[in-house]
Structure to design on (240 residues):
């Protein structure tokens, strides 16, 4: 399954990229699975997405939790808690 | 309803006037203006950069305004949020709400700002003498947003 990943603000800087096209391996079905898959890259990925770190996730531009099932061509965004206004 | 994310400044008077000029039923416009400050957490801020998530930002703001319109009887709403580089005394955000009476206008304006602070995907990065730093989200903003859920639950 192919998805588009977007990173913003502190996470964009830490990961060194704002977006990537990812081909997910079989077994990565939910947003939670995707986060596990990204953590398995190690380094800044494991560090920034570690349990207890503050970040938010959205699927197709709606806030989403780890239980959400991913579909082909989904846009998945990971970003810090928001600080606008 | 007008929801805009832009780098340019906006004209406060023109935006407020546009909310009542063609609506004789408007009896109140409440507006909130958020402004870039020169201090944050005890440090002097020279400038800030606002980043956002194009697409989701507009969508999140529209959902927040829709929720406000479901809670209160509103005639029109304008939300303008700036992004890019801003300096102290630059306006950042305008929320203006037109209603028949002030109660709805005041409440909806506060509600939209509280939700914007916790749900709209904007991020501030400040430049201080010590360098650049991303602003951390504040628990007080989460509490401010949560009070609207409690009020609804109390009916």
């Amino acid at each position: 399954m192919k998805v588009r990943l977007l990173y913003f603000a502190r996470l964009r800087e830490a990961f060194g990229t704002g977006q990537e096209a990812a081909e997910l391996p079989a077994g990565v079905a939910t947003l939670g699975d995707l986060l596990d898959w990204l953590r398995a890259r190690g380094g800044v990925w494991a560090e920034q997405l570690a349990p207890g770190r503050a970040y938010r996730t959205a699927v197709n531009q709606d806030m989403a939790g780890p239980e959400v099932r991913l579909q082909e061509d989904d846009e998945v965004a990971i970003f810090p808690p928001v600080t606008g206004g | 309803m007008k929801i805009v994310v832009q780098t340019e400044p906006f004209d406060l008077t023109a935006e407020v006037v546009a909310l009542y000029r063609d609506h004789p039923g408007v009896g109140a416009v409440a507006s909130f203006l958020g402004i870039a400050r020169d201090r944050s957490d005890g440090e002097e801020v020279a400038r800030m950069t606002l980043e956002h998530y194009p697409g989701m930002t507009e969508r999140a703001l529209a959902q927040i305004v829709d929720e406000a319109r479901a809670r209160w009887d509103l005639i029109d709403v304008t939300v303008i949020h700036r992004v890019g580089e801003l300096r102290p005394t630059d306006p950042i955000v305008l929320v203006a709400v037109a209603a028949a009476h002030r109660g709805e206008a005041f409440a909806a304006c506060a509600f939209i700002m509280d939700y914007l602070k916790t749900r709209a995907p904007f991020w501030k990065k400040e430049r201080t003498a010590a360098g650049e730093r991303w602003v951390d989200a504040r628990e007080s903003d989460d509490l401010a947003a949560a009070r609207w859920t409690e009020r609804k639950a109390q009916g």
